[in-house]
Amino acid sequence: MNKLLLSSIILILAASIFLFSNQSWSETKFIPLGVAPIIATDYIHSVIEADRTIYSKLIVERLGDAISLKATENYLQENTLPLPAQFLLLASENVTSQGLGMTYRLMSLWPINPQNGPNDSFEEKGLEAVRKNPNKPFTTIFTSKGKRMFKAVYPDKAVSKSCVTCHNSHPKSPKKDFKMGGVMGGISITLPLGQEDLIPAKVVADYIHAVIESDRMIYAEYVVNRLQNNNIVNASEHWWKDNKLLLPAQFLLNASDIIAHKRMGLMYKLYSPWPINQYNRAVTKFEQQGMEVIAKNPKETFIGTHEVHDRQFFEAVYPDFAVSKACVSCHNSHPDSPKRDFKLNDVMGGIMLSFPVQ
Ligand code: HEC
Ligand code: HEC
Question: By C-alpha distance, which of 309, 319, 306 is closest to 354?
Fold first, then answer.
């Protein structure tokens, strides 16, 4: 009798273990594998390029024309704007310092600064290839210190007339006939690949987020905060008619618009439970839950998936921190802000990003 009881308990246990593991299997079955490396670098490059375009066109070119604010190499001493190349370098150094393993650099076959020439024969071939065919990145897989790596070179185009005027008139430029829209150089992006041929979705999200966040920090700290403190120019919601700097939020939202229009699947947004603009609040349940989680634990990233027309999308919410004094003072004093006690490094909102996965 006892034996029977014991064996039925064992049977029930075994059955529930089977059922339970079966259930978790059916859940894991739907966990997306990841993203092909070329798609990952496409996403990363699209963010670098969108931010670079906004910075050159809406900041450097526009404010150069409107209020004669220049971009110069010694921007700190001269109270000017950092060069677009310096902006990119500062952001890429910040990304490298996060230790994700992803790196990127700006280079050219006709560099003003010889350090920005190709570092190896792959970069040289890549620059030649994207000059001839700007519609396709040049890629390779290689091994470095025992690790498999993926590297892609994308063209860097003259997206603003300021690119062309400055390079063509720079005393150290070896080429003086750059044209608007032409290829001036390239951006190479290198990623660790692991043993699989797909990069896990969360890792890709971390890369994309690192670029968005670094550009946001450099813009807020090196452009907005510094130029406001030195009474050179302020940021304003009505930047275009007041000849001012875009707000950091407008910088990000403009870039995310450019990317949405490319219809590559990647999208992102900035939002907050204390929005100045009601439009920037959480819309989906996922966005709401994500905000609750990151507000309590800013070290977390909230992740999930959802399906649209049989396509799996990966979603992630990252905290948006008050990285600069400018963030705090503007929000705390803005008439439409529902919260007025933000402090430096507080979570002020979140960045939600989403892209399709295989
Ligand atoms: C106000 C002047 C100025 C503007 C505007 C400007 N650049 Fe440059 N650019 C430079 C200088 C100076 C360097 C070298 C920076 C350094 O020391 O690394 C540089 C670096 C570069 C490089 C790396 C190779 C090199 O020449 O050293 C590329 C590629 C490049 N710029 C492309 C562009 C593009 C594309 C734009 C517009 C989006 C642009 N630049 C806007 C002055 C400018
Ligand atoms: C000069 C004023 C100003 C500065 C500086 C500023 N913001 Fe904002 N921020 C705004 C305004 C105004 C909006 C609403 C923009 C819109 O209409 O979409 C906004 C939007 C936001 C949002 C979306 C939710 C909302 O409030 O609408 C977040 C999150 C945010 N800012 C965080 C930051 C952070 C972090 C920084 C520093 C990196 C920063 N802001 C710097 C004024 C500012």
Answer: 306
Q: What are phi and psi of 156, to 5 degrees?
A: -110, 115
Does 102 fall in a domain? Answer: yes
Q: Are residues 260 and 122 in the same domain?
A: yes
> What DSSP character marks residue 51?
H
φ, ψ dihedrals at 152, nearest 5°:
-135, 140
Judge if 90 and 213 occupy the same domain: yes
pLDDT at 8: 56
CB-count burial class (<10 Å; 0-12, 13-18, 19+) for 312: middle
* 26-74 pLDDT, tens digit each: 334 455 589 999 999 999 999 999 999 999 999 999 999 999 999 999 9
- CA-to-CA distance for 110 and 119, rounded, in angstroms? 13
pTM over 0.85: yes
By CB neighbour count within 10 A (0-12 exposed, 13-18 middle, 19+ buried), where does 90 fall? middle
Q: Check pocket membership of 220 for ligand 2, CB cut-off 6 A.
A: yes
162 has pLDDT over 70: yes
The minimum-distance atom of ligand 2 relative to the CA of 221 is: 38
Same-domain check for residues 227 and 127:
yes
For residues 7 and 72, state if they share a domain: no
Closest ligand relative to 90 C-alpha: 1
- Condensed to tens digits (0 to 9), the pLDDT of residues 144-154 reads 999 999 999 99
Q: How many distinct structural domains can be found in the chain?
A: 2
Residues 211, 79, single domain; the answer is yes
Residues 155 and 241 in one domain: yes
Q: Based on the domain organization, do 69 and 139 belong to the same domain?
A: yes
Pocket test for ligand 2, best of 223, 280, 323, 336 (most atoms within 8 A of CB): 280
Asked if 45 and 191 sit in the same domain, the reply is yes
Whether 292 is covered by a domain: the verdict is no
Domain-located, residue 270: no
Ligand 1 binding pocket includes 51 (Cβ within 6 Å): no
Structure confidence at residue 5 (pLDDT): 53
Owning domain of residue 13: 3-32
pLDDT at residue 29 in the model: 43
User: Which ligand places an atom closest to the C-alpha of 227?
Assistant: 2
Q: For 188-244, write each residue's pLDDT tens digit.
A: 999 999 888 899 999 999 999 999 999 999 999 999 999 999 999 999 999 999 999
